[in-house]
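The record is kept unedited without comment:

——
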Amino acid sequence: MLRRVKTHRKILIILTLLCLYPVSIHSRPFVLVLSQDDLKDPSPSDPLSSDSSDSNSDWDEFGDSDSKSDDELDPGSWRSIFEPESQPDPTHDLNRDPTREDGYYSAVRKMVGAVSRGDVGMLEEGVGMIEEAARGGHAHGQSVMGFLYNMGVLRERSKAKGFMYHYFASEAGNMQSKMALAYTYIRQDMHEKAVKLYAELAEVAVNSFLISKDSPVIEPVRIHNGAEENKEALRKSRGEEDEDFQILEYQAQKGNAGAMYKIGIFYYFGLRGLRRDHAKALYWFLKAVDKGEPRSMELLGEIYARGAGVERNYTKALEWLTLASKQQLYSAYNGMGYLYVKGYGVEKKNFTKAKEYFEKAADNDEAGGHYNLGVLYLKGIGVKRDVKVACKYFIIAANAGQPKAFYQLAKMFHTGVGLKKNLPMATALYKLVAERGPWSSLSRWSLEAYLKGDVGKAFLLYSRMAELGYEVAQSNAAWILDKYGEKSMCMGESGFCTDAERHQCAHSLWWQASEQGNEHAALLIGDAYYYGRGTERDYDRAAEAYMHAKSQSNAQAMFNLGYMHEHGQGLPFDLHLAKRYYDQAVEIDPSAKLPVTLALGSLWVRKNCADSFLVEVIDSLPKVFPKVQSWVENVVMEEGNATILTLFVCLLTVLYLRERQRRHAVVVAGEAANLHQPNDPVAPIGL
């Protein structure tokens, strides 16, 4: 599997793009690098023409009155269960059957409640209702059945049946099933099929975070850091319960303009575990402006342009953006340029002035300015059409984290306009954008459940999200299984997961995460094959997994590869290569100095004392250590034995201290006696 994914890794190395998410999200930095060979001269047959500029939907950044809600963009979403205040509008789907929909959501509620309580009977009832709906052709029920078969919940795990259900659900319009299918295709290098689905999903995602005024900004949080819980990230995700937020709120209430602005940002984008609330954001931005905080002016301009929590008013939007630009907030020029391109809030469209504003933004390193100039040149809006120049601007914007630029580059790679057709690259870029869609709300609901201590619900939601191809969700779900074991409420074929089912599930999730560049996951996969944990021992596959982790500069993987070369396990016996890997491990991580020093000592013994008993002693250590560890865990650390051992150690310590005190007293007494028996005569004392 890892060999098959090397193509994906090469793409991701070339296309190392900066993260799509806000600053608070932990993810790998990526940089997009294209060679001259990737560029393509435009031709008259290109589907883009200069006269299509006014009607192009790429410019609907702030949204129009007919923008769709997240429930329309992601039909069948569980939003009404986890966000009851956000009930779907029944009028948006004229074909909606209230009875079937209510039955579906009732079944999902039972399923979610069952994993929270660990109630297998309740889960069987909910799954039975979903299965009945799926057999009746209910698309969203079919999507859930695809998930249940892929996970092996109350049925034998079957990827084939899972694929079948997702296929029918996607054909009927379920977007999450389309995500699952697209991820399945990309894992199998079926880029022609994957790119079509991801293109559609990316377009929906663009609509959700560029048009829909209610679309949330999700913060995918990795709940673990290696094998340990990521306490710092979790602490910052507790929303209004976070102590830092409460201090910030107190400062804002006392009149601190900077604190008012930050709280407004948190509510506007839904950061730090807060639910997105445009009304609260508007309240704090207005108060901040009254206190002289200029950064709030730009956000107020965007709020009025989007109609986020207020009635859309382009005239007010332009006024606020203009005030912000006068305060050297250069990103405001992007909004002003947009209004002149669309002719909103101004007398008429003015492409020349729009270009001037975009150039001011770009000259001050604003990613939006580069993207907007790219669209001008791509479409020939107010300038001579130049696809190469457009591509240059899109690359700069993409490397600065501008998601719209990813989308434009993906379309160029997909269609072969401006860039040579490259389906693997297009697929990877579309996937990055698609993962920003409204279905990413699963991440927030999972995190909220975990923070409340509802591990079963968190695992279910992360598992659903993992199926859609989210690496963070894959590693989070796998970590929950390893960390919590039976408490994870993992459900298997006949109820609660057996140890074997849990190990198999965790192994599968870690494997998927490793394919997408998670070095910790690759390391765990290597350990699983090396030690035979949850799978058969296979040194060759262990070495392959360690190589995968080593390619990401993981010191532990380098050390393990050195050890395998030293012992000829899964890799050729080669002491020189072993030393090279050991040296690389300590270069990457200085804390590895002690184990590396011991390993180098072992190499020296093997090289200079090959036939001595020392080599036999070294080779026997791996067999002896587990026995010692088992003895410590089963005998020494047993509660009664541990207490007796502690008392025994304390007794020995007391006896040792008493003996040392006694000996010290004897020595002192001897020295005092010597003072009264001098060897030399002493002169009499006279008056």
Observations:
- The longest helix spans residues 639-675.
